[in-house]
Every structure is written in C-alpha cells, then in structure tokens.
Amino acid sequence: MAGRAFMQLSAVLAFLASFLVLLVDIEAAVTVSVGPAQTVLKENTVVLQCTYSVTPAAQVDIITWSFTSSTESREVVTMLANTQSVFGTYENRASITEQASLRIENVGENDEGTYRCTVKVLSQGSADTKSVDLTVLVAASAPTIVSTVNSAARAGDDLTLTCRSDGGKPLPTLTWFNGTQPMDAGVGEPTTNEAARQVIRDLSLSPVTRFDDQANFVCKADQGYPDQLDVQTAEQVLDVQYPPVASISSNPNSSVKETNTLTLTCVVQSNPDPSQIRWLKVSGDSADVLQTGLTTTYVIPKINRSQNGTYRCEASNGVIPRDRESDGQATVNIDVYYAPKISSSFVQPFEVNFGSSLPAVTCEAEGNPTPNLQWVQVGSGRTFNNPLSFATMTYAEDGTFTCVAAALDFPKDTVNVTVNVIGRPDIIGDSPAAREFMEGKTAQIVCEIQAKPRPSRVEWFLLDSSDNRAIITTGGPYRILQENLPKGMKSILQINSMKPEHSGRYVCKATNTYGEDEQYFDVTLQAEDVVTTARGSDTTLVIIIVVVVLLLLLLLVGIGLMLAHKRGLLPCKGEPETGKGGRYVSYRDENVTNEFSIEMADKDKSPTAPLPSRVESSQYIPTPLVAASYEARLSGASFGEPRSPVGQDKPDGKKVNSPAFPEPTTEEPPVQTSQGGYRDEDGLNNAELDLSSRKPASRRPIVDPKDTMDMDYPTLRQQTTSPYV
C-alpha cells in the first residue's frame, strides 16, 4: 500500500511540475548517460553505471531503475527525495549508488536482461531514460574424457576419446591437443544440448600405433570470457601395448679388424618389456642359436675371419605382431677385415729375349677388403698394373719386380719376380748423334751399350766421304776407354787436341753372341763466333763479379769506420793525438794555422787531465795535473788575424763563451808563488808567467823564453789566428 501511495504521489508531483513549466514557459532539460553492457559471473556483484546532468541546475526529484527481459518486466528500485524503495526479488540486493548507478549483489541467472535508468526533475517538468544490458555467466564443470577402451589399447586397434562439458553458460568450445599441438585429424564436430547445457566432442584414433603409447591427449573447454572464467582442461595418457621393435648397433662398427673385440647390442622398443631375447648366427635358411635370455648384448672377443656373416636378435613380449615391422627381429652383417696375403707362386727367373714380349705375370692375393695389387720395379721405382706384361722387352725391363698387396693400414705383403732380358746389344741414344767440340780441346764421344751378355767386342770407325770405314785403335790422337755397367758397358772414344781433320762421322759398333748394334756420331768443331761469344760472356761475368765484390768490401769498410768512430776508436778533427813514444801531445785543427805541442815532463809520459778547450788564450786557465808540470813550447807557428771563439765548440762538445762573458769555473783561485808564478792547492807549479806586463789574475800557459825571444806574449796573442793554446 505504501508503495502504491508513493507512486500516486509521484504522478501528482509530475503533473504539477509540467503545469508550472507551461505557465512560466521556461526551457529546461535533464540528460542521462549509462555505461557499457556488463557481464557478471553468477553470485557475484555488478554495478550498472548511470549519470545525469540538469540544465539549468535544479534538484533531481525522482531516479528510477526498471528491468525488462524476453519474458517479463519489473521495477527494481526508485529513489524519491533521497529515499530508496526496492521492489520484488531485488530487495536487500539492489541499491542506487554513485549518483544514479545501480548496484546488484548476489546476481542470479534471472537478473540477466535490460535495465533502464530514468531521471526526473519535477520543477522543470523534464525527464530522460537510458538502457544498459546485463549478461550473467555460469561456469561450466571441468571437462571429462571417456575412452572406448577400458584398459590398455593394443597397436592396430581403433580408439575413440570423448570429451564432455556440462553446466556452462554460455556453452564452452572444446578443442583437442596432442601435448601442446592442436589436432585436426580425427577430431569430430561438437554436439551441443542447450537445454541440458552440455557439449560433447570426439577424437578418433584409427588405428592406434606404437607411437601413440604414452601420448598425452588434452581436451580444453573455453567459454570465451578469459577475464572471468578460466579455461578448463582434461588429459588422457594412452597406454598402447605393442610387440617389440628391434635394431642392432655394433661397436666399433659392422666392419671390424681381425683379432679385435666386437660387441653387438639389440636395441628393443616394446610395451610391455621383452620377456626373452635370442642371438642367432644366420647361414642361408638355417640359424644357430648363440645366446638366450634377457641380455641385450652379444660379445665376440678376438673375432676372426671365420666369424664373418649375418647375426640376428629376436625379442618377444607376448603381444602378437600385426605387421613385419613389429616382428621383434633385427639382423646385421659383420664384415671381418684381415691383412692381405699373396697366394701366387712363380717359377723364376723369367728369361725373355730382347725385343720380344713378356707373357702376363698375374699376382693373386687374399684379404678383406680385396687387396690392391701393383708391381714395382726395384731400383727404378717404376710402377705397373697387375698382371705384369710388356709387348716389347728392352734392357730397361731387365731386373727384379715386386708384387705389392695393400689394404687399409694393414702391413703390405710382397713377392719378388726376376726378369732376365738377354739378346743383342742396344746402344742408347738417337742415331746419328751430333757432337760439337772446341778446337785444341780434348773431345770425348760416349757410346753407352746395354746388353746381356756384355758385348764381346766394341769397335770404333771413322767414315770417309764414300762411307768407307776406317777402324780406330788407341794411338796418336785417339784413345779408347771402356767401363762396365750393371746392364752393359760404356765405350769412350777420346780425341786429344781436337783439330779440323778430326771432324766427321764416327761409328760405335757393339757385338755379342746374340747379335750387334751400332750408332753414328757426327763430330764437328764449334764455330769461331760461338767460341768468341762464349769467351766474351765469361769475361763480362767475371768483371761483374769483381765489381760487386769491391762494392761490398767498400761498404763493409765504411760501416767499420762509422762504428769505430762512434765507439771513440778513431781520432776526429780537433781531437788530441799522441806523439811518437808518448813524448808529445799535439793538438791540430784543419781550420787553424797554428800547431802547439806539449812536451810531457812527467815520467809516465801521459797527461792526467783533459786537454784545453777552444777558448781565447786570454781566457784559458790550465787544468792542474797531478804530480806533473807542463813545459810548453811554440813550434811551427804561423800567424794571421785572430779568430773569435764565439759560436765554436770545444773538443768536449760544450759551447765557447764570448770574451765579454767568461765561462764560470769551480776551481779554487790560484796561489801566487815566490817566483812570480802560481800554484794550486796541491802545491805544484803549473805555469810560469812574466808578470811585468800582465796582471796576476790572468793565467796563461808557460812558453820557453827561447821561442819568444823577439816578441812579448801579448803580441803573440794578437797575431795568432788560433783559438787554441
């Protein structure tokens, strides 16, 4: 009753509001907006969004939510003056929140439909309504897989797996996977029952094979709302029984050397495992059992060639095979390698006439693999195919031939055959053979003869213009030399001091019991221009060699001097030289005109201090010598204009200071002696000066008065052009 009264009051207020609007003729509007359609899982909570705006601003009087479905319509909730009224099944579940939104808790399947949000402003007489849809989801039960075979399947059988899902809203989509790979082959179309909310999809395996054993087949059920409903799965691991499938592995391999150990392994795949494994040696249609049991390996220690052949393993597990692939048998052919051995025997030696043919000599050998046979001539190393044969025998084929049988890395087997070639002599070389010799030189004509037996006679002839032969014997300019060879002999005709009359055609003739052979030699003198050219070439070559050797020697001397100079082994310009016997030390410079010598009064004839540097005589202060005194003497002096020392170097490599800026010294000032000279701290007199015209502070080297008899020292200093003292 209260609700009906509330509705009547609302209608009256709305009528009054409309009437007032017509009276004042005011433009007023309210605008409502709703959110997108919502999906919610059954028994969860959902909020249907609704907002509004009022122009001009005014107080909202009534907010109403109503529901419509394909079967019914009903009021949900109404809010008037901030007071909410909830209707029907929504009581205690529905409420208006967030301005005008509808909140529904514990959503049921009957809550699915269209909801309308209405907002009214009575003072303006305006209202607006918007709709939003709500879908209620129901989670399906976990799928199940049912097989047409209750226990393990056997290879060759037909098998169907059925996946079923119940209770889902909406109905899920069923997909089959083999492991992680989706399947198409054998997958049927889904069968659905909307009323029962059930979906079914089959997977057919026709037939089941051994490769399906332990395969994991997965059925996935997806309702299409991953954010709200999880994808559910069911799995089925197949147990497929199948007869043994066998293969054989060999170690080291199926080809094994004799005396090695061979291990054969029977590799078996089956379900269930084999109950028996047999090893057999097959020979034609029969087979000998070698081993029976569950051992998968068969070992042959030190295998020999008689164990060559076919081996077979047989495995069984009680499952009847349906094809030959699964008969549980496997074979392997074992090839035993062994070293080659020549089986041929020969009646030796073979005697063949020179110029005839050699019948085929066949070498045969046993071995595995089949040996490679080859003939090798001893000495020459020439090789020939087997059988050994020659169409025309020469003395080059005389000797020993070896048949070599080789296979893999086995030791080679050999047998020797001797071939004797007998017959007339055979002179090596083309006929006629041209020979040139220099006039005045000794000429040798070599005639090399192969023969067995050796020639009993070798003769030399000289032909005249009519081809008449004149026999040549040792004597005069001719000399005949002979040398035995392994297959014959060598005859040498030597002509001493070759002359023009010795030119011509010579004949070498060899004879034995089987016949004879001869060869012509055309002997001539070398032309003069050829000889001259040869000599000129030799002379030019000698000159070139001599020039190259001289250049190399000069280069070596230059390098030696440079090294000696760098190491101080040679004196350079401006460096001191020691006089004969070490008595004098002279100081020279090619740029000055003076030369001074210092006579050493010391007993050891060697100075103990460095020689003076390049400085003006007025600046030079002698370096003291231990236990020695200098007696300087001017000798061979020539005079010119004085030279300035500025820009010059001292012999020690230091720069010479300008006279205006004397070089500083670290020496102690000298002490004047009673004789007018100076002495250093060691008490030795180092210099004697005439102090009548010079200040004591200027130290100069002492000179012998007899050398300065007609001039005083300052004059001498002014006239000299040398910066050295």
From TrEMBL:
Annotated keywords: Disulfide bond, Glycoprotein, Immunoglobulin domain, Membrane, Signal, Transmembrane, Transmembrane helix
Domain Ig-like: 28-133, 143-232, 243-333, 340-418, 425-524
Keyword Membrane on entry: yes
Disordered: region residues: 638-725
UniProt keyword Disulfide bond, yes or no: yes
Biased composition (Polar residues): 716-725
Subcellular location: Membrane
GO CC terms of this entry: cell-cell junction; plasma membrane
Main location: membrane
Molecular-function GO term, any one: cell adhesion molecule binding
Signal peptide as annotated in the record: 1-28
SUPFAM superfamilies: Immunoglobulin
Residue intervals passing through the bilayer: 541-564
Stored InterPro entries: Cell_adhesion_signaling, Ig-like_dom, Ig-like_dom_sf, Ig-like_fold, Ig_sub, Ig_sub2, Ig_V-set
Membrane topology: Single-pass type I membrane protein
PANTHER family recorded: MAM DOMAIN-CONTAINING GLYCOSYLPHOSPHATIDYLINOSITOL ANCHOR PROTEIN 1, NEPHRIN
Protein name: Basal cell adhesion molecule-like isoform X4
Gene transcribed to yield this protein: LOC109474985
